[in-house]
Amino acid sequence: MHTLRKGFFLLTVSFVFLISFTLPGVALGESDTVCVHGHSARVEDENLLNFFKPKYYGWGLDFDLYPGQSTWVHFSIPVHGSLNRALVIAINFKTGSSDAIVDRIDIWSAGNKVTQFDVPNTWGYQNLVLPLGTISDPIEVESLGISVRVKAGYKTQMSHNFKFYKACAGYTSVSTD
What we know:
Shape: elongated
Oligomer: single chain
Order of helices and strands: HEEEEEEEEEEEE
């Protein structure tokens, strides 16, 4: 679980070097990584879940989809103060088999879709880290929502279980003035 945090630390250090040596006129302000626990996520359509409701544990969110169904899992990542320029998001999850996949991730700022990532047939244990912007052109957000589309195939003998452990966003208060 500490691998993701180390990755963000290395990413932050890389940003400092990038700014210091290659982008004169860009001043690095504060930066921070904000994570929420998997049990803070919400499943959009609980009627599509086997056993009809997700299970919330100390370690995260756990649910099973009926075969052939898909729904969304939504995370709300806090934005605070001047740290409202998003550079990267990360999601840590596990699926029960190759017949239980994540295939798309949408990023929202309030009611506006900022971007979409197609991650076809992503299954198993994953630490996805996806770039949102660059240090000289970060994505400014009012609030940050991460929506993850989950799908179950039609193979009834395979697991359609999903476990979400955490979702994170890397923010900066970079100024290009």
